[in-house]
Amino acid sequence: MNIGLLGTGNLSVALGKAWATAGHSIVVTGRSPDRAKAAAEWIGDAATPIDPGQLADQAEVIVVAIAWGGLEEALRLVGGPDGMLSGTTVIDCTNAVDFATGRLLPETGSAAELVANLAVGAHVVKALHLFAGASWPFAGEVGASPVVAICGDDAGALNRTAALIGDLGARAAVLGGLSAARQAEEAAGFVMRVVAAGANPRFAVPDVDPALIGLGTANP
Ligand SMILES: NC(=O)c1ccc[n+]([C@@H]2O[C@H](COP(=O)([O-])OP(=O)(O)OC[C@H]3O[C@@H](n4cnc5c(N)ncnc54)[C@H](OP(=O)(O)O)[C@@H]3O)[C@@H](O)[C@H]2O)c1
């Protein structure tokens, strides 16, 4: 698949490397051509730096890896408000969180819903905001692979995102529609607060086996 990375920072490079290893082609762009070039070099031979205006044409799936404060500007650069991303799967990884306190910054809604408003007609999926980019690809045992909670309104976009999460060595769990994104984003602040309290968030949620209460398990 041709994956478009919007953002030239740490997360873009980490995801780009992991997906390149899984056999995907990568195009990367941002507000700085120099930083797009550097990010492509860090990712490796599978990656090509492009101008923001080329992203809509060159990517089958777009991953938004932008600092919260730059979301609007970045999506304008790639023609989101003009409908250039219409029909495209757009995966939003933004953490709209005050990193000092863990408080979610949007007073209502979510970063993912802001992305949906700025990328007119795109199929937005919230995903991959909770785990550090350095987590990927997961190389441990299959039974211990991380679960990546995702949400979105388009079934095809959710399936595409779940497949890309599978290529990182993780499993996707669909929470529901994009209106679930605020809760998914709040979880990042919760994780930060647990860490700040001196505990490992891995042990801060209950160990519940869905099979034991008659539910299926997350796949793939
Ligand atoms: N790093 C992780 O492990 C990780 C994991 C999960 C989620 N996230 C989330 O993913 C997003 C990116 O994280 P990161 O670690 O990659 O951050 P980063 O290394 O600081 O990169 C941020 C990116 O946002 C761009 N940006 C900032 N302001 C902008 C603006 N006004 N207009 C256009 N572009 C702008 C930066 O462009 P310039 O370089 O030109 O400033 C850069 O490409 C954040 O929301 C973060 O919370 C990160």
What does this structure look like?
By secondary structure, the chain is α/β, with parallel strands linked by helices. The protein has a single domain, classed as NAD(P)-binding Rossmann-like Domain (Rossmann fold, 3-Layer(aba) Sandwich). Helices cover 32% and strands 17% of the residues. The protein has seven helices and eight strands. It has helices at 10-21, 33-43, 55-58, 71-77, 111-118, 155-167, 181-196; strands at 2-6, 25-29, 47-49, 61-64, 89-92, 123-126, 147-152, 171-176. An eight-stranded mixed sheet has the order 3-2-1-4-5-6-7-8, with helices on both faces. Strand 1 (2-6), helix 1 and strand 2 (25-29) form a beta-alpha-beta unit. Helix 1 packs parallel to helix 2. The radius of gyration is 17 Å and the shape is globular. It starts with a strand and ends in a 24-residue tail after the last helix. The mean pLDDT is 96. Bound molecules: NADP nicotinamide-adenine-dinucleotide phosphate (NAP). Residues 7-12, 30-32, 35, 65-70, 73-74, 93-95, 129, 132-133 line the site of NADP nicotinamide-adenine-dinucleotide phosphate. NADP nicotinamide-adenine-dinucleotide phosphate (NAP) binds next to helix 1 and helix 4.
